[in-house]
Prior knowledge:
Elements: E1 4-5, E2 8-9, E3 15-16, E4 24-25, E5 29-33, E6 40-49, E7 58-67, E8 74-80, E9 84-85, H1 87-91, E10 96-101, E11 110-115, E12 127-132, E13 137-139, E14 143-144, E15 149-151, H2 158-172
Antiparallel strand pairs: 1-4, 2-3, 5-6, 6-7, 7-8, 7-9, 8-15, 10-11, 11-12, 12-13, 14-15
Amino acid sequence: MRTGPFTLFEADGSIVPVFATANMVVHDSEVFVYSPRGGSAWATRSPTPTATRSDPTISVSTCCMSYTAPQQVSSLTVIIGPPTFGFRDGCLGDFWSWRYDDADGDGWQEIDIGPRLNASGDIAPAATFRWSPQKSRYVGPAGSPADRFLVYDATDGEEVRTIHARFARYWRTRQVERQGHRVRSCRSSTASSIDPIPD
């Protein structure tokens, strides 16, 4: 997979703003053809801090997908896998990832999410989302903190922070239950360990 920034253009040459200004293909991100008609979409997985005063070092991993149309909206936003707690824990990497695959051969790519099995990016699918032409979005199970994933509406604004914080709060006392092959995201660090903040 190649990495770097990308730009979308309309037929008249004007630039199409990328949803949430996420126009970078980096680790666990990709632009791909999702439909039999050649429609393209992008997906990115990134750590998202809960950004609350009581939990400044906790982050959840969110996977967001959008098709590359002039009027872009999120076609799937889902928290994937347990959160990380503290700077050093975050450097060890997250636990889950995603992949696309036309498993049923209908020309529409399905999105699988699940715990990472190895450094090559193989996953054990825990949930599958399928494209709905009628709804113009991916549909599948809603999930919950106990399921280790949770679908939500990316346009909920301030409510998104509450959703992330609630997900992290569930996992605060269950850190030993987190599963998945972790890919280190920091090459080196001089920072001291930051322990989870007690409730």
